Amino acid sequence: MFRTFPAALLPFLLLLFVGTVCSAMIVPYMGFFIVNGLGHEPWTISIYAGLVSCLAILVNRNFAVRLDGGANAFPLIGIAATAFLIANLVLSIAPVFWVVLSVGVLGFGISTSTVSTLFSLGGSMAERHGIARSRFNAYMRATTSTAWMIGPAVSFLVADQLGATAVFKLSAILSLLWLALWWRAVPHDMRLETKDDQSSKQGQGGLNTGLWLAAAFVFCLSTAHSLTFSALPLYYVQEVGLPGYAPGTAFSVKTFVEVFAIFSTPYLIARFGLRRSLLAVTLLAIVTIQVLASVESYPQMLAGAAMEGFYYGLYASLGISFVQSFAPNRPARATALYWNTLMVTGILAGPAAGLIAQAYDFRTVILVASGVACVAAIVLVLGSLSQNRRPSHS
């Protein structure tokens, strides 16, 4: 059905991998660095995280408008990589809190745009080589998941063995590789190929209801996952009584299964369509989160982690294709909306999990997450019933 995967796209995936590894090294590490490295109170993490997230959302949206308007994608990727390099160089020299809140916020906030930009660009590159967008989305999601398996582990290992600022020095070195791959892997005149059809009128002058309903679905199911992700480590250790290394093992199992699940999504789309596949995955998510809330032993934890990786791997790949299917004429806008929605859920989930756990316990957080996943299923069903124009792959 598809052509053999062209070797010409491998450098692009390597670029995505290196850029994501760089981000994965910094994103989870900054909170640890602010508290353990600089000695500030934990609440100060929220100042940094809020500023970075707000800037990232603005940059993603601005870059998406440029890409959909026909702007050259090449310099946008270079801006992100350069910003990451500058932030790491400055923090290597002056690792103080005011630098984190100024140069760090600007550099790391801008650099987060690279994933959204590359996912937008990847669709056009795939079509140029005769590969279905949904299939290449799966390759890109598997690439980012693999990078997230590696990045955090590397940063914390380096910090433990070589000191807190060594992470910034290593990230700066890796960003040079990022820049080299950007120069070699991306055509210097790469632009998105827009489609001039009747759907182009939608989203320019009117409200693209389908796109926003798809984003609402992504928001609900991503919130359910983020709540679970935030609560599980403390739930396993404090309430179930598992050893301290258990959450890390569960995360490794989850991400391992997640990568393999992602590669099955093109088949699911071709066989069952996007909506039906997503509905089945959402129902699986509800069951999985209930299983996670019932864990009482180490083997049960591993089984639950495998189930979580399976549903989330499927959802991560299907979800972005689903959102993109409602805006074929503005793929960058749809892609940015998808990543910004994930970012917002990540921001909200931490405080929400903390408040719920403070009032009840961490198991209750997981049960609430299961309820939010139920809302996601309802949104998906209602959206399907209300849409007169079906997505291209449904």
UniProtKB/TrEMBL annotation:
It is a multi-pass membrane protein. Gene3D superfamilies: MFS general substrate transporter like domains. The chain crosses the membrane at residues 47-64, 76-100, 106-126, 138-158, 164-183, 211-237, 249-270, 277-298, 310-327, 339-360, 366-385. InterPro entries: MFS (IPR011701), MFS_dom (IPR020846), MFS_trans_sf (IPR036259). It is found in: Cell membrane. Its main location: membrane. Keywords: Cell membrane, Membrane, Sugar transport, Transmembrane, Transmembrane helix, Transport. Residues 211-394 form the Major facilitator superfamily (MFS) profile domain. Belongs to the major facilitator superfamily. Set transporter family. PANTHER family: SUGAR EFFLUX TRANSPORTER A-RELATED. This is MFS transporter. It comes from Ruegeria spongiae. The lineage of its organism: Bacteria, Pseudomonadati, Pseudomonadota, Alphaproteobacteria, Rhodobacterales.
